[in-house]
Amino acid sequence: MRLSHAFGGVAALVAVWQLGVMALAPPHYILPSPVETTQAFLHQPGFLMRHGFVTLSEILVGLALGSLFGVATAFAIAAFPRAGRLVWPMVVVLQALPVFVLAPLLVLWFGFGMASKVAMTTIIIFFPVASAFGDGLRRTNSDILDAVSLTQASHWQALVRVRAPLALPSLISGLRVAAPLAPLGAVVGEWVGASAGLGFVMVQANARMQTDTVFAAMAILAVFAVVLRLMVDRLTASLVPWAREAEPACFPKSSRRSI
Q1: Is the C or the N end of the chain the one with fewer CB within 10 Å?
Q2: For the residues of 151-202, what is the DSSP string, one character each?
């Protein structure tokens, strides 16, 4: 995703939001306009950014840990396929548990501090990364594996030097899916129990019917999600030079009419 595309998409979303408010004219405590949301942010920028920094810290640590555990799990399953047959069902069961059920338990186990929010974010990030990278490791081209089998390379050498590099495009796809989900994990953890963070701000503002402040906090989270996605794209742009992405053409050349 390019920066210009991100700005264009966000601008279009804000325009649709503003047009909806102008057309439906709902009370501001139900749906504030983008202007009212901006005024709520400008009324208390230091307060919102201070809590935003807390949430961002939880997001970044959880994103790093979730990605690390996801990559390690997928790699371990590929390295020990017999054990992997038992591990994947465990991973699926963990992913199937509702986050709103896990969040109170994590607060109970890790306390009201940063640890429970990082744990919640790590769990949400873990599955898409592990699933995408594991799928990439399993889908190595059979012709390449046949060629590797003709050499003296061991199972470990084939995994590290051939299968893992070829699975990097799948890992990048998993990271792209996971990055925008990271704010969700941190905020869900803050909703359950916290004394700081944007989730805490939203709970407090919602109780006071300060919907514009709730939307201002959500706007900051949206910015975090877009920036995280752009950051993943930038950091992984040069990792797979053999599998560069191409911009899809709007229309096939063959369908163009000659004048």
Answers
A1: C
A2: TT--HHHHIIIIIHHHTHHHHHHHHHHHGGGHHHHHHHHHHHS-SSSHHHHH
pTM: 0.84
Other CB atoms within 10 Å distance of the CB of residue 171:
25
CA–CA dist 88, 90 (Å, integer): 5
pLDDT digits (tens, 9 = 90+) for 9-56: 888 998 999 999 888 888 888 899 999 999 999 999 999 999 999 999
Contacts of residue 37, defined as CB under 8 A and 6 or more positions apart, other chains included, come to: 212, 215, 216, 219
pLDDT tens digit sequence for 51-109: 999 999 999 999 999 999 999 999 998 888 888 778 888 888 877 888 778 888 888 88
- Half-sphere exposure at residue 147, Cβ-oriented, CA atoms within 13 angstroms: 7
Rounded distance, CA 163 to CA 169, Å?
11
Contact present, 242 and 59 (Cβ < 8 Å): no
Which of 127, 123, 119 has the alpha carbon at shortest distance from 58? Answer: 119
